[in-house]
Design brief:
8-stranded mixed beta barrel; rod-shaped; TIM Barrel; Alpha-Beta Plaits; alpha/beta; 20 strands; Beta-Lactamase
Length: about 650
Amino acid sequence: MTLRMQLNAVILSVLVMSFIGSVSINLLNTQHYLSGQLASHAQDTATSLGLSLSDPIFNEETVVVEATINAIFDRGFYHHITLENINGSIRYQRVSTTQPEQVPQWFIDLFSLTAPEQQTMIDTGWTIGGILKVQSHTGLAYQQLWKSANDITHATLFIFCLALLFAYIMLQQMYKPITAISLQAEAIQQRKFIMIEKLPAATELRNFVLAMNKMVANIKNTYDELTQAATETHRAAFVDEQTGIENRRSFVDMMDSLLAESATHNGAIMMARITGLAALNKNQGYQAGDNLVNQLVTVIQEEAEQGVKLYRISGSEFCLITDDFQIPKLTEIISSVINKLQVNMESMQEAKAVFGFVNFKSAQQFADVMFELDMATNNAAESSDGFYIQQQTNPLEAFGSATNLKTILDKILEKPENHITLKKQDTLCCSQRLAFDLELFAAFEYKNKTINTGDLFAIASQYGETGKLDFTIIKLILERCKTNQLKGKKVAINLSRLTFSDRLHMEKITGLIKESGFGASLVIGLTEASIVGDLNESKSKIEALTVNGCSICINRFGSSIESLQYMMEIRPALVKLSPAFTRSIDEKKGNEQMVSAFVRMAHGLDITVVAQCVETESELATLQLLKVDAALGYVINKPSKLY
């Protein structure tokens, strides 16, 4: 029972008992008073009537005696008037058997009135002429007692209602700070730090609220300091101080994760190189060189779309990673960048910006990709256009022309059960090596030929079908959730950035999950790039998923400094660390420090931390020491078909 209910019950009980006690005491007092009045009334009547009957009795005037008794009795106030001879025989008697009117029988039974019989001796000179006995009738007394009971009840009830209203107002004033403190305590459990602005008037409650506010402020300061420390550590290790973009270390770690055998990522890299930067610094000063570098970064970031990342890998070289490799779009972007830089670079004859491009896919060697990128950039320096694209074979060319690829995509979407195979990979708790959840993803094939997942999503993106492809995959997974194989298990699935950014497709997916009733079984994985683009819009979409029972997971957590800033807003159930931090973590002490900071921050918000792409027992042991909650990767098991 809540404190509010307990206080309400106590106050109401006291008021009810006070009401009943007050009514009862008043009625008992009135009852005793009326009983005394009945006795007094009977005695006064007996005395006065006895004096009146003295002469008629002495003179043997029977008619006068009876008339006198009748006159008194007919007033209706008496139960009986009896005149007895000295020997006890009744000379004359009048008795009334009427019952009290307009008085309930239960009231008469509950508050009984007793009218005592009073008597007087009738003196006729030297002798006793008779005995007169009088008993008052209780009818009128009951009517008066009933009327008093109604009046007392109404008056007391009115006072009771006023007292109840006053008590309610007072309790509400007392409940407000108590309720605020309760909500504040619940918020702390959810790692939300709210302050109670309005202080109560009661000294004890005011001191309690002030103490709670102080405690919340201390907890928030501790978390803010931890977040700030993690941010500064991340920035010092992975951010270029001059430009504010991520540095070579971050780029190498990201490419390692994208090129891993377990990855399914295809994309492109652009290298922007400022030739002659050293000569510019020498002839015009380092400020001119810094200005050119900053301008190049600004222009590229303005032209690049959401989902791409720019890194500074050396003083004069920058790399941009994008999800899709589309030559016309890249050509258009870089032409715009060159045009914007052209005006300012006319006065810098020593410097020139050139751009080289290559595409990559998983399982390639990092050194090979960088060699091709360096060659493409060197070719760009010799080109009059200032850019060069290293052509590579499209893995989908075996399926035919672009039109044919669209046809293949349509057939996959039309009959997904014939072309989509669901695969699973176990996620285990680090501490007990028990099952945590199942990571599910789709594998595609057409005419017995496997299609790389990244390639197919690239096609879907080109034709605006990414949301439909994600919807189809999720529908297949939800159908499997009905089977015994997945029933009662948590399954993790990923949504692409393009799908999450499309409100219409998100509404369809949310509706599908709601209709299935299996939302509580799903862990929806989102990338940081999906979320930070429009945080308010992201919060709205995430709320729609969580309302239907879904848990939210942030994939590749820590891959950007924004990770540490939106956590308080989004509050996901899980985060999956970027493979750039977990890969070879047993050999990279700097990554250990970063992961430790991330884990402390996430646990401070009651968020579960999962490590991806864990491939050795040594890596797993290190992650366990760092208190990472769960892990998945080849060291646990490889992806297998979900039968």
